[in-house]
Amino acid sequence: MSFTVAIDGPAASGKGTISRAVADHFGLGHLDTGLLYRAVGARMLAGEVPEQAAQRLRPEDLGDPDALRGPEVAQAASRVAAIPEVRAALVDFQRAFARRAGGAVLDGRDIGTVICPEAEAKLFVTASAEVRARRRHRELLERGLEASYEVVLADVRERDARDAGRSTAPMVAAPDAVLIDTSALSIEEAVAAAVAAVEARR
Ligand code: CDP
Q: pTM score > 0.90 for this model?
């Protein structure tokens, strides 16, 4: 039987950590859909036409997520994500994953609104821009990447504005999504809130 959990929210809101924990807790598959856009963004930076890169994308292109996690690729991802043809090329793969036997958690920006409006459980995970920038800054430093907090905050704000302002599949909470603001929550508290919200839908 399929069971789909849609988890959306802005950059560094905690949705990745929450999604992995929810998938582990319920024994579901997990797809970080941001990696699809990051992979297309990386190919655009390498000189490919984004629409063609999206059409040619294969699961094995996501094999080394760490190579896709930097801020330059994130900005490129948010630019290609505003192109309707890029988004359209990635729909089938995401929907097939969502309906896999055994159930799935997908995290992104438009999962509960466009990719899986019929998902059994929907969450929208947010936090203030400052808290998110602090988290992302710490993550980058831990991975040995140079970054100033101010630059990371500006990047987060720019991507938020582009992701929420685009005309195709803008980032917005589905009307039936459970909102989780992680600004003042520990990871354990945020995961517990998400698990409880999904449990209530089972
Ligand atoms: O990890 P972080 O939240 O910083 O970003 P991500 O989830 O990896 O997504 C990178 C970019 O891909 C976002 O800024 C969006 O522009 C785009 N994206 C999207 O448009 N739709 C999705 N379902 C997932 C990501």
A: yes
